[in-house]
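Supplementary notes for students who missed Thursday's class. We covered one full example, reproduced here. Read the sequence, then the structure, then the short commentary at the end.
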Amino acid sequence: MLIPHFVILAVFHVVAWLLAILAMLAILITGKLPAGIANFQVMYIRYYPRVLSYVHIIHHQYPPFEFSSSEEDPGGSPVAVNVEVSPGNRNRLAALFRPIYGLPQIVFVTVYSYLVVVVVTIAYLIILVTGRWPTGMRNFVTGFYRAHARYLAFIYMLTDKYPPFSVAA
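Structure (token representation):
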């Protein structure tokens, strides 16, 4: 049932990275983020945790094939992701050095993702026995979704605001 979502995510992932490069070039040249690029990035950042939260059994509602690019989440899924985009008057120097400046965030989110795999694997076993998620483990996984969305918004040039090394809402 999830194969169509995984195919879409794989294509979106490649397109999102290519658009991040174009966004960086656009910001370097014009100082502005093109709306079309921002819209796609917002849509991808919203779609990814919706699919992942279903895979991780955070909720039981099949993820919708909904591709809204509005900053405010339109609903339709238990996972709500609102993204604040900074389109104009962007820091050109920050855009140029974003790949280097973002390295600590890349490490943080990568390590966190490996820990999530371990936690979800253990949680699956606990869910089989008890029928529910342990609260702390669930909070750890949902914290990853928040940290990952913030990281993507930063690395995909949607904002110049450096994301915190935090999982809090």
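Commentary. Residues 3-30 form the longest helix (28 residues). The helical segments are 3-30, 35-55, 92-96, 98-101, 103-130, 135-155. If anything here is unclear, bring it to office hours.
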